[in-house]
Amino acid sequence: MPVTLHLAKWLVPVTLPVMENAGIAVSEGRITALDTKKNLLKHFSGGAEIVDHGDSIIMPALVNAHCHLELSIARGKTRGGKGFYAWLKSIMNFRQENTQTDQSAFYSAALDAAGELHQNGTAVIADTGNTDTGLKVLSGLRDKKIPCFLAFREIIHPLPGEADLPDLSDFSPGICHQAAISPHSVYTCSRKVLLEIKNWCRAHSLPFSIHCAESPEETEFVRTGGGPLAEILTERGRDIPSFFRMCRSPVMLLDETGILDSSTICVHCVSVTEEDLEILAGSGCSVCLCPGSNEFIGTGTAPIERIFSSMSDRVCLGTDSLASNTQLSILGEMRMIMKKAGGVSPELVLRAATINGAEALGFSAFTGSIEPGKRAFFLVLEESGCKREEIHEFICCTKGPFPLKLVSSQGSETASQAR
What we know:
Blueprint: E1 4-11, E2 19-27, E3 30-36, H1 37-43, E4 49-52, E5 56-60, E6 62-67, H2 84-97, H3 103-119, E7 122-129, H4 133-141, E8 148-155, E9 177-183, H5 191-203, E10 208-212, H6 216-224, H7 228-235, H8 240-243, H9 250-257, E11 264-268, H10 274-283, E12 286-289, H11 291-297, H12 304-311, E13 315-317, H13 330-340, H14 346-353, H15 355-361, E14 378-382, H16 391-397, E15 402-407, E16 413-418
Parallel strand pairs: 1-4, 1-5, 6-7, 7-8, 8-9, 10-11, 11-12, 12-13
Antiparallel strand pairs: 1-2, 2-3, 5-14, 14-15, 15-16
C-alpha cells in the first residue's frame, strides 16, 4: 500500500504531547503512524512519498459543533448588539419577508458558507436547520470540502400532543455522515416533545442537541411563563399553558425531563447559575460555547472559565449562523475565548475545538486528534519561530489572515488564508 509522509517542524496531536521535527504516515486515507522525522524516514525508507511542510504545524482539523447553514442568506440583515429579543424579531421578519425567495438562493448562500468554514480549517460540522438546505449542501460536499458532518433537522413544536418527527430515511448515512433530529429549545417544544426527540436520538445512537440558556429572555420565560418570548409565542397563536410548565432554569427543566446525559449537547449556556453548572457537570453532557454569536446578538457572556473548570473535557465550540455572527471561523471563536477568559489554558481551548467536539458528535473514532487509525483530516499552519511552550498559544491567539492548508483523507490539499 502506498504511504505518504507529512513532515513539519511541529506536530500537535492534541491527545498527546507536542512533537518537534515530526510527522505522520498516511495510507489509504488513514493515519498509520506518528513519530519524529528521523524515525519515519528510517522506517519508510522503501519509497514512501514525502511531503515536507517545512516550519509549519500539523494539527487536527477543526470541529464546528453548532451552526445553521440555512441562515447564511441573512448575513448582515439582522439586528445585532441589542439583545436576543431584538435579534429574534429581526430574523423572524427576515424569514417572513423572504417566504417567496427562490430556494436556490438559500442553497447558494449555504454552499458559500460551507466553503468559508472549509477555508478556515473546519472539516467536521454539526449543522442545524428547519429545512433540508444544510443537509443537501453537506451531502454534496461529503468526502470533499466537509468530509465529516452531522445534520440536525430542528423541531419547533409548542403544541400539545406528540411531535410529527421528520422522516430521514431518504438520507444515506455513512461512517462520517449522519442526519438526526433536534428540538430548538425548551420554550418552543413541550417536555413531552423534548423527551420524544431524546428517545428517538437514543434509539438511533445519535447525539441530542438543543439551544439552552442562550439569553436572559429565555430564563425569564422558563421561570415565569412570561416576558418577551411569551409575547412572541402569543402573537403567533400559541397557547402557552397548553404546552409549557415553568421551572427555575432551562438547565433544570432539561434535567427534570430526563434529557441530560452523555449524548446531550447544550448549546450556548450563557444564562446559567452555579447550580446549573453543577447539574451540567454531573450529568455528563457537553456544552457548546458560541461566544461570537453571543457577542453579536448581545446576550451576554457565558461563564467560560467556570464551565471549563468543571467540565473541560466536554466543552466544544460552535460559530452559530451568519445571521448571528460576522464569520464562520472556529479559530476566531478560539481567539475570543482566550480574550474573554484568560484563565483558560490554550491547550484546553484547542481540545474544545477538536477532540471534544468530535466526541460530542460521535466522531472521535475517526477524527478530532492525530492518532493511528483515524482519518487523515488535518491542518498545516505556517508559524514563525515558535518555541514548544508557545505552540498552543500561537494556534489559539494568532489573528488571521494567515496561511493554512486543510489536507483530506484522499491526500488533497486546499490552501487558504484563515481568519
